[in-house]
Amino acid sequence: MVWLELKQMVDVLGIAELVLVGIFCMEVMEVTLGTAADRKTRIWKWVCVILSTALIYQLIAFGSEMLVLHVLAPREGSWQDDVLLSLVFNGIYLFCNTLRRLLPMAMSYAGGIWLYRQGRSAKAFAL
Predict the structure, then answer these.
(1) Where are the transmembrane segments (predicted)?
(2) Contact 44, 32 (CB under 8 A)
(3) pTM over 0.90
């Protein structure tokens, strides 16, 4: 029961972090590109970035949970104590965590090219 409550609290904190990072990236992109947009357009862009980031995060979390359940399922041989398996899971965890941290910045960079069609300004933003 405590584990479920802790997981829900982490999910709420993750969503709050996601919203704040998404809004921050959109604001930085607005300032960097120097393009005026009305309020409706800004809100629409924020919603696109935040929802697509949330979707990608949930797909990563779902995929990693399914992988863990598949590998740790009871089998003929014992896989739980394998050192190589532990290293693989640590590598997957580091990759997913790195992707989680870099994803809003990468999406803002892509949005600078896709939404504004200004590759030069988007490249300056990435630096």
Answers:
(1) 12-31, 43-63, 83-99
(2) no
(3) no
